[in-house]
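The freezer alarm interrupted the setup, so I double-checked each line after restarting. Inputs confirmed:
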Amino acid sequence: MTKTWNNKAWFFVLPVLALVAFNALIPLMTVVNYSVQESFGGNVFFFEGTKWYSQVLNSERFRAALGRQLIFTFTILAIEVPLGVLIALCMPRRGVWVSVCLVLMALPLLIPWNVVGAIWNIFALPDLGLLGRVLNGIGFDYNFTRQAGDAWFTLIVMDVWHWTSLVVLLAYAGLISIPDAYYQAAKIDGASRWAVFRHIQLPKMKRVLTIAILLRFMDSFMIYTEPFVLTGGGPGNSTTVLSIDLVKIALGQFDLGQAAAMSIIYFLIVLVFSWVFYTVMMRNEGEGQS
Amino acid sequence: MSSGIGETQGQAVPARSGRRRPQHQRHSLTWLVPTLYILFLMLPIYWLLNMSFKPTNEILGSFSLYPQNFTLDNYRRIFTDPVWYWGYINSLTYVVMNMLLSVCVALPAAYAFSRYRFLGDKHLFFWLLTNRMAPPAIFALPFIQLYSSVGLFDTHIAVALAHCLFNIPLAVWILEGFMSGVPKEVDETAYIDGYSFPRFFTKIFMPLIASGIGVTAFFCFMFSWVELLLAKSLTSVGARPIASVMTRTSSISGYELGMLAAAGVLTIIPGALVIYFVRNYIARGFALGRV
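Predicted 3D structure, all chains:
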C-alpha cells in the first residue's frame, strides 16, 4: 500500500508517545543516571564514569549469568520452534476439532507466570508431584531442588510446556492461509511430502515464524517469574538467569550503580539481537507486499 | 467482542469441501501428535486440580492420582478470606484498566502508522517496539521511585500505567497489521461521501477491524494478567495482585499446597473464559494480523 506523506499524523501518535515516554524514558534515564554515579547512603551521589560498567563486564558472576541465559534461550528456541512447526503440520485443518485443539493449546499462555512456576513446582516435587514420582519410580534420582541438572531439565520442560503453543498457533495461522490450489498443483507434479513442506509450507510460514522467533527470543531472554517461583535461581546459582541476578542485586542488595550498569548492558544485548531479527522481518514483509 | 468478528475467519477457512483433502494429510496417524501434545499440556493442570481438591494432610500424607477425601475447603477459604479475594479483584481491576487504556491510545497511533508516512515514523515504530523488548527487571526499581514520587504507588492506576510499557507497543503493532489489511480506498470513498474523520473512524473503520480490536484487547488482557514482577513491585497492600498474594502465602506459611493449588486454578479461569470468546480468531490473532 502506498502511504501519503503527512506530518500531521504525528498528532495521532502523541498520546502513545506521552504514555510510553513517561513509562520508558524517565525510568531509563534514572537507570543511566545511577549507572555512572556512586551513591552514599542513598542520597549523596557523585560521578563515577564507567567504573560500574567495567566492573560488571569483568565480573565472573555477570558472565556466568549471561552464559546461563544464552544457553537457556537457545535451547528452548531449538526445541520449541521445530516442535511447534511439527504440531502445527499435524493439526486438523477444519472441523470441530480445530477449535478444541486451539483452545486447549492456548490455555498455558494465559496462566499467570507465577502460577506456571507453582504448577510445575507442585507437578515436579520429588515426593508429592506426579512427574517427580514417576521419574524416581523408573529409576532416575530426580530432585530439582537439589541437583542442578534436574533443575535445568525441569526449567526447560516447563518453558516448552508454557510457550510451544505460541509457535504452534503462529505456524498454524501461516498454514491455513495457504490456498488448496497449491497442494493440488503439488499433487499433480507428484511432489513428495518433504518437497511440499520445503517449497510450499515453509515459505508461507516464514513471516509468522520470524515473529515467533522474535517473540520467543525476547520473552525468554527476560524470563524472571517462572524460574524464580520454580527454583528461586538455585540450587546454588545454577538457574540464576540474568533477570533473577539483576533483581537480586537491585532490590536485594540495593547495589544501585552495579544494578543500573548491568541493566543497561542487559537491555543493549536484547536490543541488538532484536534489531537484527526485526530488520530481517521487515525486509521479508517488504518482499511480501511488492 | 464476539459480534462483528465474522469476516476474517471466513476467508481463512473455506467451506468444507467434502473428502477432497490434500494428499499430504493422508497419513492416518497425524492426529497422534497434537493429541500427545495436548495430553502433555493437560497433565500438570490436572495435577493442580487434583491437589486443589485434597485436604492438606492427604497431600502430605499419601500419594494418589485422584483426591480420595474430596474437599472444597481450599476454595472456601479463598472465597471467605478478604486478602485472597481482594487479590483477584485488584488484579482484574488493573488488567481491565490497562486493556482499555492501551487499546484507546493505540487505535489512532496504529492508524497513523498504517496510513501515513511522516518524519521519523520508522524509527518511532522501532523505538516503541524496543519497550516491548525491555526486560521488566530493569524497570522494577526506577518504577517504584517514579510512581512513589507522583504519589501513585500502591494504586491500580500505577500498575495499569506501568503495564502500558509493553502493552501499548504490542497493541500498536497488532492493530497496524490489521489496519493495513483494509484497503485505502475505503478511507477515500468515505471522505468523498462527506464523512468527517471522527465519524468515519468510529462508524466505518472500527467495525471493519473489529476482529483486530478484539484480538488486541485479548493480548493486552493476557500480558497484563500474567505479568507479576512489576505488579508486585508497584503494590504493597492496597492494590496487591493475586499473584503477589500467592507468592507471599507460599513463602510464609510453608506448605499450604492445597490453597496454592486452588488459587492457581482460580487464576486459570479468567484466561480460559477469554480464550473461549476469541477461539475463532485465535490463530490469526497470534499472527498479529500479519498472515
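Quick read of the result. Strands of chain A lie at 4-5, 37-40, 44-47.
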